[in-house]
Design a protein that fits this description.
Length: 287
């Protein structure tokens, strides 16, 4: 018998002790999401689950609050093929990008007519009887595109992906224009953490030029390397990386799509999670 009159239970395991404390405090189970997260963190503290399992549980809960706009690949970063292109024009784009799915567009990126799977091109280059490259017709290969609003919740989107057996959807803004695309990998990353998928290739290079004014810059790029590339003089005494410098200017943890201007450079967050920023699109103003 303990001093407070309660019987001690030396035979209890860590699990049973933790569960007894939980049930005494929360009769009837957790009433809010915060209660549930607290229980899970206590389970982690009691070594009943590892840190990765806790992170995945928290990620699952966050999918109900996270919107598609927070994880999508922005329109400017989309690799597309045009409906009028020939096989010879499409193949180099597919090979160079390394992607497996491509939006097929008409006159502009706002006119998406469907999705092309890279694997559907193999039969025109592998000598399969009946698939002569001369008979190539992109319209016969295009699969229906799925469109979702920017505000859609990730838990709902994941259910839709599973139900429709889709891996990609085009994201539509409030005006009906294409804002970007989202893949099933983007959703799963919110649960299991970063996955090196086909749209992450830019993150392996410190600085990747897109056109004369736009660049993709890895947030871990040393400020010294950024200065050498762009001929700038950003200070590197307080921060070592571009991400550290830009985060300081934001003053908070930015979400995908947020922008901040430093001198003649506009830094737009392209990829980020609740812990860090991974990739910026940097637009250089005319000097």
């Amino acid at each position: 018998m303990s001093e407070d009159g309660h019987s001690t239970r030396p035979e209890e395991t860590g699990l049973s002790q933790w569960w007894r404390r939980v049930t005494q405090r929360l009769h009837g189970g957790p009433r809010t999401r915060e209660d549930l997260i607290e229980l899970l963190r206590e389970a982690r503290a009691a070594e009943l689950m590892d840190a990765d399992a806790l992170s995945m549980f928290e990620g699952i809960l966050q999918t109900a609050e996270t919107q598609v706009r927070d994880v999508m690949v922005p329109r400017a970063q989309m690799v597309v093929v045009e409906q009028a292109w020939s096989l010879d024009r499409i193949v180099p784009v597919v090979v160079e990008s390394g992607h497996s799915r491509f939006p097929v567009i008409g006159e502009s990126k706002d006119e998406v007519v469907g999705i092309l799977l890279a694997k559907d091109l193999l039969k025109f280059s592998s000598g399969i009887p009946g698939f002569d490259p001369a008979t190539f017709d992109l319209r016969r290969l295009v699969r229906p595109a799925v469109f979702v609003p920017e505000s859609k919740r990730l838990n709902v989107l994941l259910k839709d992906f599973r139900r429709g057996r889709n891996h990609m959807a085009l994201v539509v803004d409030e005006y009906g224009g294409i804002a970007g695309l989202v893949t099933i990998e983007d959703v799963l990353e919110q649960i299991v953490g970063e996955i090196d998928d086909e749209y992450d290739e830019a993150e392996t290079a410190p600085i990747l030029k897109q056109d004369e004014r736009r660049y993709l810059v890895n947030a871990l790029t040393p400020i010294e390397a950024f200065n050498a590339y762009f001929g700038t003089n950003f200070p590197d005494e307080e921060f070592d990386t571009v991400g550290g410098l830009v985060m300081h200017r934001f003053g908070h943890m930015p979400k995908r799509g947020e922008s901040v201007r430093i001198d003649r450079f506009n830094f737009n967050v392209q990829r980020a999670d609740s812990r860090r920023v991974y990739l910026f699109q940097v637009t250089v103003a005319p000097g």
